[in-house]
Amino acid sequence: MFDQPESRRTAVSRGPRARVVLWAVLAVVLLMMLAGVWVGVRGVLAKGHLERALLDVGSLQSQLEGGDTSAGKQIADHLEDEASSARRLTGDPIWSAAQHVPFFGANLRAVREVSVVVDEVADGAIVPVAGVLGEVGTGSLAPQDGKVDLEPLVGAQPAVAQAAKTLTKADRDAQAIDTSATLSPVTSAVNQLRNALISAATQMDIANRVVQLAPAMLGHDSERNYVLLFQNNAELRAGGGIPGAVALLNVQDGVIKLENQAAGSSFGPYDEPVLPLDPESVNLYGDITARYMQDVTLTPRFDLSARLAREMWKQKFGQQVDGVLAIDPVTLGYILRATGPVQLPTGDTLTSDNAAKLLLSDVYAKYPDPDVQDAFFASAASAVFEKVSSGGFDAKAFIGALTDGTKDGRIRLWSANNAEQKQIEGTAVAGTLPTASVKTREFGVYLNDGTAAKMDYYLDKKVSVGSSVCRKDGRPTSVVEVTLKNTAPADAAASLPRYVTGGGEFGTEPGKIKTLMSVYAPPGAIYLGASQDGKGAALLTAMDGDHPVAQIQTLLEPGQSTTFRVAFLGEAKFAKAGVQAESTPGVRQKKVEPLQFDCAEPVPVG
Length: 606
Hints:
By secondary structure, the chain is α+β, with helices and mostly antiparallel strands. 45% of the residues lie in helices and 20% in strands. The protein has 15 helices and 18 strands. The protein has helices at residues 4-65, 69-89, 93-98, 104-132, 151-175, 184-217, 279-285, 302-317, 329-339, 355-366, 370-389, 395-408, 418-424, 492-495, 498-501; strands at 224-232, 242-252, 255-263, 323-327, 342-343, 349-350, 412-415, 440-449, 459-469, 476-486, 513-520, 526-532, 535-536, 540-544, 547-556, 561-569, 578-583, 593-594. The strands form 4 sheets. A 6-stranded mixed sheet has the order 13-12-16-10-9-18, with no helix packed on it. Strand 12 (526-532) and strand 13 (535-536) form a beta hairpin. Helix 1 runs antiparallel to helix 2, helix 5 (151-175) packs antiparallel against helix 6 (184-217) and helix 9 packs antiparallel against helix 12 (395-408). The longest helix is centred in the N-terminal third of the chain and has 62 residues, at 4-65.
């Protein structure tokens, strides 16, 4: 009873304090709610800006592809505004503080980082490049009166270099965004950004190399001379085909001239290799690689082929050239899509539809004399070159033709200038051996003709590659499958010209196709085994530098096909990398297919 008044006093005294605390808590809750609403509203607004920026990217691509660079520049500026707004909306102090809230913070942080990346790409890549595209559009690069104006390319070099650098950094930053605790929509958006940047960074890197290289290689600062190899796919070499014709390309300040054409057979044979060959190349391809111009592309290493061709040109003509370029008749057919048909002195009309057949098959029946064949090839090359050098072509279609030829592996380029060659290395025109990285493991399938004739016009090839991790140590097993087929008519021995079949003069019965196939794996791989048509296959195993090689010979009658499987063990650190393969471009080049390889299947042995 005596303690009751004291209790009432304590309760009364605590009342105001409790109310203060309560109001404080309510204020904090209210602030949090307001902050949540603030962040939510700004998030919705930022989302809208990013979505409109994405739409601008599509519109920009359409405008630039259509050649409307003025409209493209306006869209690029609008895209920059949208991206900048998204970055600003996700960069205020409240948003920054909310990034540390459990669960939701990870999503806000990811959205902020996406906004920053998109804004930096817009500001440092899209706007600068859009600003110079009016000067270096495809149409502006077409020769006028035999000359390419190089100044727009030179002027574009800083902007394109900046764009390449920006996209490389953006790719790296996007890969570093943490999505381990983000919601599915946010994770999906980040992955879409990553995929887009991987593609954009790769393409811009190539564009930058072209823009940096082209002026110098086209004689902007001094005269340049290049050996041009015309490879004949009817007689395959690992690098493409036998160099049946050779010429000199002279370039000076954008003026390109085709000079001094000669037959590949007019070089050598040389008693000794024109340059030293390493024992591994001799073991795989023989020293004839360095003794005959027609055999310099027996090796898939185009840098070696180019140095050999350069030295042979020097020994024959006393001229040291600045580089080597290789193309084939299929590429000429692609180019004819841009130029339209050309008339030849023989009265033949060369078109995009008949170029490969006429140059790689029909010519041997129409003109049995090898000297006339050489003259025919030279006239075809000259006619197409004259059409291109005069500017008489569709520029967009011409770029497409070169792109298709490059994708097929039909165009190769090497420079004697070390700085320029460093820029070429790693591109699709370099002709280098397969590599391995955390993203991709590459394999190579290279074919050399053993018939000593022109039967490879009838050789079809299909390549597939697949990989699985079948071992406890995590090392991947990869299998390369190659199917070769002789599609020549059943009566090829009698119906085809002797020059095409070889007439049995080199040990192969007329109508049959003999092929030496070399399958390359990337450095660090180990050869496991091989099979032919499901049975163990006898083959040669060797090394080409750091690359394991499995070399197999096959002989096919008309209509006959055979399938090889070659297995390699890869390094565990590359187990999650995708696999792909390149192959010698024949007359018909099919896309490499994925191979469904199951660990339950027996590994090829042989």
